[in-house]
Amino acid sequence: MKSNLDSDFISRTLRTTSILLLIFVPFGLYYIGVYPTIAILSGAIWSFLNLMFLTALVKAAIRPQGADGASSAAWAFVKFPLLYAAGYFLLKVPVFDPVDLLIGFSSLMAVMLLKVLGRALLGLDNSGTQPQSEKLGKAH
After folding, report:
1. Is the pLDDT of residue 1 over 50?
2. How many domains does the chain have?
3. How many angstroms separate the CA atoms of 77 and 46, rounded?
């Protein structure tokens, strides 16, 4: 399989997870209640921010020109103490069940896992084959 985990993969994962969470909101409000739905959304937003800050940190630290020390330090400061303190305080909100927050925290990773499994099962990354959409495009 080819390595296809670039920033496009991350943006597609964020977009897919956002759409799934927007679909979840009305059903969550109706079936599980307001606070559990808000807890799941809060955990998912925290997870989004965590992935975005991690991406920015890696892009600043690993570059062909060399690491940008000031930018890397700034992203590390935002990500580690501030974001993780926010996650800690989310866990301390009395109306949020930790299980609901855990569902929100892990929703992004679940979408990533399903995307990777889908690509592997469909064989989209095999070097000798091309996706069905590319085959159809060449037929015209």
Report:
1. no
2. 1
3. 16
Domain membership flag for residue 102: yes
Structural domain range at position 92: 7-139
For the entire predicted model, the pTM comes to 0.81
Tell whether 1 is covered by a domain.
Answer: no
pLDDT digits (tens, 9 = 90+) for 36-54: 999 999 999 999 999 999 9
Let me know if residue 100 belongs to a domain.
yes
Specify whether the CB–CB gap between 103 and 40 falls below 8 A: yes
Q: Is residue 82 part of a domain?
A: yes
Q: Where are the alpha helices (DSSP H) in the chain?
A: 7-31, 34-61, 69-77, 84-92, 98-122, 132-139
Kindly state the tokens that stand for 24: 């979840």
> Could you give the C-alpha distances from 33 to 26, 28, 106, 110, in angstroms and in order?
10, 6, 20, 22
| φ and ψ of 6, to 5 deg | -105, -170
